[in-house]
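FAQ
Q: What does a multi-component entry look like?
A: The components come first, one per line:
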Amino acid sequence: MPLIVEQRILAPRVSWLRVAAPEVAAKAEPGQFVMVRLDEKAERIPLTIVEADREEGTIVLVIQEVGRSTADLVRLRAGDTIRDLLGPLGRPTEIERVGTVVCVGGGIGVAPILPQARRHREVGNRVLGIIGAQTKELLILEEEMRAGCERLLVTTDDGSYGRKGLVTDALAELLAEEQAIASVTAIGPVPMMQAVAELTRPYGIKTIVSLNPIMVDGSGMCGSCRVTVAGATKFACVDGPEFDGHAVDFVELRRRQSFYREEERRAVAAAGEGCRCRNA
Amino acid sequence: MPERVSMPKQPVEARRRNFDEVAQGLTAAQAAAEARRCLQCKNRPCTTGCPVEVDIPGFVRLVAAGDPIAAARLIKEKNALPAICGRVCPQETQCEAACVLGKKGKPLAIGYLERYAADCERAATREGPAVSARPDGPQVAVIGSGPAGLTCAADLARGGCRVTIFEILHAPGGVLRYGIPEFRLPKAIVDEEIRYVESLGVEIKLNAGIGQLYSLPELFSLGYEAVFIGTGAGLPHFLGIPGENLNGVYSANEFLTRTNLMKAYLFPEYGTPIKVGRRGAVVGAGNVAMDAARTALRLGAEEVTIVYRRSRAEMPARAEEIENAEEEGVRFRLLTNPVRVLGEDGWVTGLECLRMELGAPDASGRRRPVPVPGSEFVVPAETVVVAIGQGPNPVLTRGVQGLALNDRGYIIADAETGATSLPRVYAGGDIVTGSATVIAAMGAGKKAARAILRELKR
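Then the predicted structure of the entire assembly, as tokens:
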């Protein structure tokens, strides 16, 4: 069972895990993800591979507590194990030398944007980064992003750090200033990705978003993760998870993500009532 | 001649709300009496109907003699999964269809007897007379641990190979695990029969998605001398009608995987949820559709309707499964074709359908359903399950040079050997034929194992 070799808290309810998974690390590319099942009774959930160290044989996962399954993962410490880890899954990001690129990460989305910024830099692109969070203490991986970007703009919704405003405000400025942006990659909450796509649409700039619909197996078998892209149904797990942001039906995606909201509340409530038999 | 035995079942009222096995199995007396009906024909017509070559008169004779354990061991020489096959094989179109008793009366209940023998052996012993793979035997990789892969692996191990099965999910069994419900095939039985395959020396590597973790050619550089692909037909088909992505529309694969593999019926004790409304509609009429409809009832739906565009005669499900579904209260809307999924605020409210009538026979030989103009009506439903089959998953074959696929994306393989266009790469089961049966996949796995053993001996 994959062992957690290092754990850090990046922000309240946000955990950074380095996990021993040599076979996965050997193959992982930016943009790909793993499916994780913590224990016998747990859900399978998709997590982006934030980093892969081929020599050490480890991968890094960043998890934000949003429900019961993620809460259980955030509680893990070095020395704990994860029962099942499947990956790498999904198509890798296509990163080529194109000139200037913008990498936008919102909230927990900063974690998956980081490997992309790094790879863009490796292939010789000029990387402009934008990261944002609701408030200062929720901002993650700023130093790592700064090291991976030529220029980094930081925003907080409440102005407690960096510029006050949304990542899209900073992007609007960059789009006005910069002449030759070849692509924008945005990862974060769906409304943020949608707003980024709307912002770049008039400029005709290629805009890539990484989608996080509900998945069960992550291998193309169930179709739970279907999304509409340019009018056609795609499976995010095998056709994505990255798609052309200008072609994604974000309204449908948000609706589908909310399908189990009531059950999520029940799961959290059940966990709160001390029904923790699986950790016994 | 005594009458064919009938299978004791859980009473309808209880079973339509629980996930316990419906068919309860024969008693010793019932099994012995049924086995004695066998004529022990010299030319053994029943065996020609068995894709995995089970010695049917031989094992039936042992059951009649009161030695079901010996019977199970005889079956296992050919079929590593008898408790599974005894439950899910369509015997009525295979061994039992060829039974001479069936000419005048009802055929011998071969499936029930196979199940009886296997269940007795399982209850009596944990370990079968396992043969281990030779430590110096050639290494063979099997991709997928469903019926085809398990059968191929078992026969290869018996033939002296060191076999590794690569399974993408966290539990082995393929469709036996994620697809067929507990009430038809208890997972404890799947576990036991897989343990038997492992006891032959087969190693199962879980959470291993070939195509991404290792490419097909890479397996050869890891030391495997042959590869069998038994990945099944993994990608669910949808209808391609408006509204299919509304909340509340499931593929049968998702609906059954959540329930069977992830045990969503035990939510929130288990973490995976499933949502079933008061009314469910299941599109399709194969075994998977029956499984989905009966699962929906057990998850609390009050009303479940099967919607199928052809007539009763064309329904692909086993008669036994249709009967079980009917007994449990599933309704059938036949000659009915869904044209649109209706919704409100993003959530399913029903299926808009057209009535059909049967026209001239189509390419499949079945009479083609033709829509009746102006016959639109609505089947109200808060949950819709699409059970119209699956296509091949492209992940494994994506980017493999030289592996010939047909125009639908299935692997082209020789019907007798499973040989593909690539040397030492074999394939069988649904990834070759498209959606078929457990036993057909097992038959393909068996043939491929024989061909691989022949190839490796050269």
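Q: Is there any commentary attached?
A: Sometimes. For this entry: The first helix of chain B runs from residue 12 to 15.
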